[in-house]
TrEMBL record, chains A, B:
Residues 24-411 form the Non-reducing end beta-L-arabinofuranosidase-like GH127 catalytic domain. PANTHER family: DUF1680 DOMAIN PROTEIN (AFU_ORTHOLOGUE AFUA_1G08910). It holds the Pfam family Glyco_hydro127C. Residues 487-589 form the Non-reducing end beta-L-arabinofuranosidase-like GH127 C-terminal domain. This is Glycoside hydrolase family 127 protein. Signal peptide: none annotated. GO terms for biological process: carbohydrate metabolic process.
């Protein structure tokens, strides 16, 4: 299995063709800085914690059955995502070479594989639960899926030699084991992994098995659980769904796998079903940041228009998964508008989730922080549900390595080709080696709105820039996006933001953070004046003086007394919580 | 230990004296009906499920250590609350006699008690975890507390002979075991139980131990857990707290125990601290229904003014606990306004939680149901977190027996005495045997606002009836409460209800339920006109026609097109979800 080309998503057909990420060099600006930090600090940080907590060690010791295994059922997947991130990073133009670490971990992983191909450090050995004895939460096929994705990345980058064969033996075991029954894994992931392995190997068994997993879902074959079958997307068949529901990361991973199956099997009905579900999810169940999933309890989508900014969940991994899904639909359909949600998620979820030093992370990305965050010491694992600040690690630490693999392979999400030319979806200064004419893009987006390409390309024009058209100037194509700050208002059916407005600048959602406000300005008492155009970092408003009462429900709809006009200072949402404890809000009540 | 008088809360001192519940007969109306259903159908329903699930059987079988124990760590407490409910019901004027069942269960419980007094069916026997090995979630002292409360009820009613001695041996064991260390139970309850046992026995060891448990709390002695110490009220000492926080039922039970300790030890500072915490909780963290606790994940209070109606938690048990706490503060301080929150909780949480047949229950009492509820079959245990309709039972089934014991003893919450006379706090038609002149109250509250007493009494005047004063007419005292439907508006800081109003009639919160609306009226599209006074069961409004868009955030704050005027039909919130699947909302967006 020697391929050594391609990125994370390389369909064999579709409207647009992806570009090998090693041919895309981000030359500066917003994402180059983040890729650099990711490629060194974040990846090394992750390895430190994986070793400290024993999650890598699980592979070395469980072979003997004597050592006590560490971590949750899904900890293996973190090692696999870490390996995947290092593969992409090692071939990224300007990236860091991790060959030594990849070879070391590959040997460790290979050593833990059973003779029949099965590989999971928490099941099947003496003193452990039986294989596949906890389909709801065992995460066995989920972990296998991430191993296969790592193996695919190894094959496409020519790194981590030996890992593609380990992955293939895992996949063969799964195809043998799950061919003829109705079992599925509580957490989707295996579907997209098997399709990508088919794309690398050409072996249709993997595609067939992925298709079976997609079709089996939705028939309540998983054991009953208090979260209900909808949590697992096992209540409604994939092609019969109306809108994404249940656990948001599960829903989005499943949808990505369904798109992969649909593309490779030419199943237009399945493709249209998932595309429709994403459309309706974007229209009714997505935060202004592009974040998905509003419930803390079961990490799930809420009902339509239930999008409270307070304690918004908006898990970082759901952001990664949204990028995965939208990119697949972009490639399949050629519909450029899918780039809009990628743009929004990258600048408002992914960019928000990671600390400047690349060593602390948000698990959940709330849109409103009423009680000041508290600092987490750099050596301290954080509790997932704290709703607090960025933390170095979590017991459920899926988001860190997920962001790392996305940022290391970000080059593959920016530009595509088809027979008629080149499309630029995401705006970053970059050089792209194309078979014909190479491409150079210059821009300081999102700080500025000018984007120029030195050859003919099609630019995505974001929906917020409607009416804007690129212009041709000799060999150059230029796009001038309107970056004037703008007021944005929510649909009347979003109860939680009624009477509020937000400010956006290009793709960037702004917020008010307490550390920027004048003395005496409490964020929960501000009202802003939307009759005045917002400035880049400030809006006009006033401060209400709430009457403190014994009971907060009154027979008069009093307008509380308000202050003289004040200036409310704004910063990009992705910049919040970087300057000490603070409160924050995106949605601002209007006067 | 022969007492045979008193109700659930009988302090030895305080501003007001409670009345023995067996001297209070509710003669008709709203609560007589509910007491009748509770005293037969609900109590029998609970016994059926306790037996079916093996929770009673645990007492019979664990003595041998051979049978597999059933249910969660706190299932014993359900048997104890069931026993307590039957004690009160058996002496309630017009109540049902459960002596046979009480004797049977008492023998079963006594048979499971260890030689040293310890009693819990899930710990300490062969094959079970060690005693007190899981202080966070073992619920051992919590269960002991409910056993002691049942023993106190047995002593005060003269029922369940033998149970008071079982309870006392449990309490002695606890005093011996926990006298000299810093351990507390993850779920408060033992505090109030030990004080009540002191009140029955006069043995100060119980009071001292209760005081120690109260003072120990707040020093992070419990093991760390992902919900944090605030969940367990173990982050801040009780007397240093600002507002109730963490798990709502835990917080309220602890507060009730702290009031009990403060009253019996004359600790005015502790009493004032808890009273202040309740004041601030009512002002900032309580739903219009009187419900407390907004978070599903950890069943906790949200931050100040975070009270989203969508997926409101408002656990039924938190309603019971609010009544317990407010009644204690009423007795301690003589401040009649504590009756207001009792009134509100009874009519909007307790009355809502129970089905008409007394055999199905809400665990959580949401204020907004966007997706139609689904019926739960009468033999089907429901998942606690479903957010669905009333269900016959839950895996965590605390609410059912809690409501049963409250309703069976409701007579003790209506009237008090002091040296100067009699106070009527809750309005129901009733006769009360008092040492001097008996009292008869006539009213059809909450359907009507006239309340008459046939002798001199002090009436509580609810805050919503401000300006109303009782009048004297011969021997009669009459209160005419204004029952005209009224608009109610939320504090501007409650983000989730901005731009909304609700309708209240007396103590009753109204709601719009889908089954009452005309064809084509979708609850999430209504807007109401608050310039027109509400009628008893209807308000005027219009229907907006939302524009369906790809993305719900727009640069224009468009007023969606709206319909001709419509009538929005209202019903009391406590009547909702009784006529098939429906959607519902209390807070109505205004035009």
């Amino acid at each position: 299995m020697t391929v050594a080309s391609g990125g994370p998503v390389f369909p064999s057909r579709g409207a647009l063709r992806p570009v090998d990420p090693r041919r895309v060099r981000i030359t500066g600006g917003f994402w180059a800085q983040r890729q650099a930090v990711n490629g060194t600090a974040t990846i090394e940080h992750c390895r430190t914690w994986l070793d400290r907590l024993g999650w890598t060690g699980n592979f070395a010791t469980t072979g003997t059955g004597t050592a006590r295994r560490r971590g949750r059922e899904f900890s293996d997947s973190e090692v696999y995502k870490h390996v995947e991130a290092m593969c992409w990073e090692s071939v990224r133009p300007g990236g860091t070479n991790y060959d030594r670490q990849l070879d070391e971990l590959t040997a460790m992983i290979a050593g833990a594989q059973a003779a029949d191909g099965y590989l999971h450090t928490a099941f099947g050995r003496p003193g452990q639960p039986e294989r596949y004895s906890d389909l709801n939460f065992g995460h066995e096929l989920y972990c296998a899926g991430h191993l296969i994705q790592a193996g695919v990345a190894a094959a496409r980058t020519g790194r981590a030699r030996g890992l593609p064969d380990v992955a293939r033996r895992v996949a063969d075991h799964i195809c043998d084991t799950f061919k003829d029954d109705d079992r599925i894994c509580g957490h989707p992931e295996i579907e997209t992994a098997l399709v990508e392995l088919f794309r690398v190997t050409g072996d249709e068994r993997y595609l067939d098995q992925a298709a079976r997993f997609v079709e089996r879902r939705g028939h309540r074959s998983l054991p009953e659980h208090e979260f209900g079958w909808r949590y697992f997307q096992d209540a409604v068949p994939v092609r019969a769904g109306e809108v994404f529901h249940g656990h948001s990361v599960r829903a989005l991973y499943l949808a990505a796998g369904a798109v992969d199956v649909a593309v490779e099997t030419g199943d237009d009905a399945l493709l249209a079903a998932v595309a429709g579900q994403l459309d309706r999810t974007l229209a009714r169940r997505t935060y202004i940041t592009g974040g998905m999933g509003s419930r803390h309890l079961d990490e799930s989508f809420g009902d339509d228009f239930v999008l409270p900014p307070d304690r918004a969940y908006s898990e970082t991994c759901a952001g990664v998964a949204t990028v995965m899904l939208a990119h697949r639909l972009l490639l399949a359909t050629g519909d450029l508008r899918y780039g809009d949600i990628v743009d929004r998620v990258l600048h408002n979820v992914i960019a928000t989730a990671v600390a400047d030093d690349g060593q602390a992370f948000f698990y959940a990305n709330t849109l409103h922080q009423r009680t000041a965050t508290e600092a987490v010491p750099p050596d301290r694992e954080q509790l997932r549900f704290g709703g607090g600040p960025r933390a170095p690690w979590f017991e459920v630490s899926c988001c860190l390595n997920n962001v790392a693999r996305l940022l290391a392979s970000l080059g593959s999400y920016l530009v595509t080709e088809d027979d008629s030319g080149v499309q630029v979806h995401q705006f970053a200064p970059m050089t792209v080696e194309l078979d014909g004419t190479p491409l150079t893009v210059e821009t300081d987006y999102p700080d500025g709105g000018s984007v120029t390409a030195d050859r003919a390309v099609t630019f995505r024009v974001p929906a917020w820039a409607h009416g804007t058209a690129p212009s041709r100037d000799g060999d150059q194509v230029r796009l001038e996006l309107p970056m004037k700050p703008r007021w944005t208002f929510p649909d009347a059916r979003v109860d939680a933001t009624r009477g509020c407005a937000a400010v956006e600048v290009g793709p960037v959602v702004m917020c008010a953070e307490s550390v920027d406000q004048e003395d005496g300005v409490t964020l929960d008492d501000i009202q802003v004046d939307t009759s005045v155009a917002p400035e880049a970092n400030a809006v006009k408003g006033r401060l209400i003086k709430p009457v403190e009462r014994d009971w907060p429900y009154q027979s008069q709809n009093e307008n509380p007394e308000s202050s003289d006009p004040i200036v409310v200072t704004l910063v990009p949402y992705h910049r919040w919580a970087r300057r000490g404890p603070s409160t924050m809000r995106i949605w601002l009540p209007t006067t």
